[in-house]
From TrEMBL:
<keyword id="KW-0808">Transferase</keyword>
<keyword id="KW-0067">ATP-binding</keyword>
<comment type="subunit">
    <text>Probably a homodimer.</text>
</comment>
<dbReference type="Pfam" id="PF19293">
    <property type="entry name" value="CdaA_N"/>
</dbReference>
<dbReference type="InterPro" id="IPR045585">
    <property type="entry name" value="CdaA_N"/>
</dbReference>
<keyword id="KW-0548">Nucleotidyltransferase</keyword>
<dbReference type="GO" id="GO:0005524">
    <property type="term" value="F:ATP binding"/>
</dbReference>
<dbReference type="InterPro" id="IPR014046">
    <property type="entry name" value="C-di-AMP_synthase"/>
</dbReference>
<keyword id="KW-0812">Transmembrane</keyword>
<dbReference type="InterPro" id="IPR050338">
    <property type="entry name" value="DisA"/>
</dbReference>
<protein>
    <recommendedName>
        <fullName>Diadenylate cyclase</fullName>
        <ecNumber>2.7.7.85</ecNumber>
    </recommendedName>
</protein>
<keyword id="KW-0472">Membrane</keyword>
<comment type="similarity">
    <text>Belongs to the adenylate cyclase family. DacA/CdaA subfamily.</text>
</comment>
<dbReference type="InterPro" id="IPR003390">
    <property type="entry name" value="DNA_integrity_scan_DisA_N"/>
</dbReference>
<dbReference type="InterPro" id="IPR036888">
    <property type="entry name" value="DNA_integrity_DisA_N_sf"/>
</dbReference>
<feature type="transmembrane region" description="Helical">
    <location>
        <begin position="6"/>
        <end position="25"/>
    </location>
</feature>
<dbReference type="GO" id="GO:0004016">
    <property type="term" value="F:adenylate cyclase activity"/>
</dbReference>
């Protein structure tokens, strides 16, 4: 009887640990790619300092850090109010525990890829530069806030008009979420990779920079050459036609998250020899 009670207790403790671990994991996924990542890094640094001060008996430093933690909770609520609101909204939809938000339906994926491919081909023929971002699991709200909020239905005609030269929104990136153009004229972080080809301009560096910190799919049209490129996971593939771009985006948005990078690159190389992968 005692052994049975102990076994039951172990099972309950294991379930408890697994539930807490999964909640922490989903929260980290939710915060990835937002300003809260820097906050977590700062918290870890303070915890390390607190442990060192406790080990070395630095009472003043320990007192200071403990007071920072007590006051910092209110500051976090004020500063990161948008992220907290987003987390509560996803909790209400089950988005923290069940990853449903980025599970695109077949019809939606087809519409997204078709509209983007048509617009990219049109802009490519006229050598009009474009930077189009498709949000997936990593939240891009921080970058959406840097642009002009649209929340408009995604159409190729709207994309063409946004990137027309000398229009208010042609500079910067368009960010797409769930088949909607959330914002235009958005600023993206530039990649600091020293091995990027010198022939790539600011649009390509911005696309690479965002892909290095998120799982977004980025479509770039070069203003100088009209070349269409796709950027994922810090890698750029160039030289797409409209049909090839449509197939590439379909494959990228439909396949499982674990196999997105390697499988997509392998199939693309087999299917299209003319694409240069940098």
């Amino acid at each position: 009887m005692i052994q049975w009670d102990m076994m039951t207790r172990y099972i309950v403790d294991l379930i408890d640990i697994l539930i807490v671990s999964y909640i922490i994991y989903r929260m980290l996924v939710l915060l990835r790619g937002t300003r809260a990542v820097q906050l977590l890094q700062g918290v870890f640094v303070l915890i390390i300092f607190w442990l060192v001060s406790k080990f070395m008996h630095l009472s003043t430093v320990r007192w200071l850090i403990q007071n920072l933690f007590s006051v910092g909770l209110l500051a976090v609520i004020i500063i990161f109010q948008p992220e907290l609101r987003k987390a509560l909204e996803q909790l209400g939809r089950g988005g923290i525990f069940f990853n449903r938000r980025r599970q695109f339906q077949h019809k939606l994926v087809t519409r997204i890829t078709t509209e983007i491919s048509k617009a990219a081909a049109h802009l490519s023929k006229r050598q009009i530069g474009a930077l189009i971002v498709i949000e997936r699991e990593t939240g891009l709200s921080d970058y959406i806030e840097t642009g002009i909020l649209l929340e408009a239905r995604l159409t190729s005609e709207l994309l063409k008009n946004i990137f027309l030269p000398n229009t208010p929104l042609h500079d910067g990136a368009v960010i797409i979420r769930d088949g909607q153009i959330m914002a235009a004229g958005c600023y993206l972080p530039l990649s600091e990779n020293p091995f990027i080809s010198k022939e790539l301009g600011t649009r390509h560096r911005a696309g690479l920079g965002l892909s290095e910190i998120s799982d977004a799919v980025i479509v770039i049209v070069s203003e100088e050459t009209g070349t269409i490129s796709v950027v994922t996971h810090g890698r750029i593939e160039r030289g797409f036609t409209e049909e090839q771009l449509n197939l590439r985006l379909l494959r990228e948005l439909k396949k499982p998250a674990k196999n997105r990078n390697r499988l997509g690159t392998f199939l693309l190389r087999k299917e299209k020899e003319g694409t240069a992968d940098e």
